[in-house]
Amino acid sequence: SSGINAEYGGYDNMQQGYDYSAGYQSAAPVSSCPYTDVALPPHQPISSTTHCRAKLFFVAAPQPISEEVLSDIFCRFSELVDIQIIPGTAYGYIRYAMKESANAAKMLLDGATIAGSTIRLSFAEDSGDSKRAKIDH
User: Fold this and answer.
1) DSSP assignment, residue 47?
2) Nearest-CA neighbor of 40 among 21, 23, 15?
3) Which has the higher per-residue pLDDT, 43 or 12?
4) How many CB atoms lie within 10 A of CB 90?
5) Which residues contact 72 (CB under 8 A, 6 or more apart)?
6) Does residue 79 come out as left (phi exceeding 0), alpha (psi in the -120 to 50 range) or beta?
7) Which end of the chain is more exposed for a tag (fewer CB within 10 A), N or C?
8) Structure confidence by residue, pLDDT tens digits, 51-104
């Protein structure tokens, strides 16, 4: 069961009686979210650390998604550090203290519709202040 916990963001889903071993897409929604139809895990506390181990680059189209909505969605994967929206744009970064959380968020939400916009996620480069993202095609 520790492999499932690490793969899906580190929280103990089995203890709560939810079986995510088949993947988030097939799981019943655990907590309601008015912004998306995607089945999401329950809210998790924001990370107590500011150390980022994984960073996702996001683009929303056709319109930006508010930081409040993004926080509600992405805090459901443990150890969310912060969300940085580039001012005046529909893109930015979602930072996690655990790589497994970023992996789970990307697996579940890449291409999902959130608040009427489609969100695309990719892993951002970790080298210095680079604004470029590594896009997986």
Assistant:
1) P
2) 23
3) 43
4) 16
5) 33, 35, 43
6) left
7) C
8) 999 999 999 999 999 999 999 999 999 899 999 999 999 999 999 999 999 999
Residue with tokens 């930006």: 64
What are the tokens at 55?
């960073």
Q: What are the backbone angles phi and psi of residue 96, rounded to the nearest 5°?
A: -125, 150
* Separation CA 133–CA 92 (nearest Å): 10
Tokens of 65: 């998604």
Q: From CA 35, how far away is CA 14, in angstroms rounded?
A: 26
d(CA 70, CA 116): 13
Task: Determine the angle formed by the axes of helices 67-74 and 99-109, rounding to 10 degrees.
Answer: 110
Q: Which amino acid is at 105?
A: A
